[in-house]
Specification:
By secondary structure, this protein is mainly alpha-helical. The protein has one domain. Helix content is 74%, strand content 5%. The chain has 6 helices and 2 strands, in the order αααββααα. Strands 1-2 form a two-stranded antiparallel sheet. A hairpin with a 7-residue loop joins β1 and β2. α3 packs antiparallel against α5 and α4 runs antiparallel to α5. The longest helix has 26 residues. The relative contact order is 0.10.
């Protein structure tokens, strides 16, 4: 019961953090200058999944924690820690989110943008 509650708190915190980050980036002057909205969404998704990607805890079978927490704890606080597994999980997970986001950026471009690009061809 406590394990599920902890993950619900982590998930709710990630949602609130991603929402606040989105509002923060949206309100900056630089983002209003012309940076694409979809790139902002990709960045927010990266931060969201950074906090949610699970990694197994060493010496505790079938117990998971956020990968960045396991990595930091194993890297900094354990004398014989092995942060390699959590680091690899974090890298692969964030790379997958980035690739999916970039793929969706190109796959779901607006038809108005495609039409304008076609008219500008020589």
């Amino acid at each position: 019961m406590l394990y599920a509650t902890a993950w619900m708190v982590i998930g709710a915190s990630a949602v609130i953090g991603a929402y606040c980050l989105n509002l923060l980036i949206k309100g900056t002057r630089r983002s209003r200058a012309g940076s694409p909205r979809k790139l902002r969404y990709i960045f927010v998704a990266l931060v969201f999944f950074f906090f949610l990607i699970p990694a197994p805890l060493p010496n505790y079978p079938e117990v998971f924690a956020p990968a960045f927490v396991v990595f930091v704890f194993e890297f900094l606080f354990q004398s014989n820690g092995s942060p390699n597994e959590s680091r690899n999980i974090l890298i692969v997970g964030l790379a997958a989110v980035t690739l999916i986001g970039l793929f969706s950026l190109f796959a779901f471009r607006s038809k108005r943008k495609l039409h304008a690009d076609a008219e500008n061809l020589p």
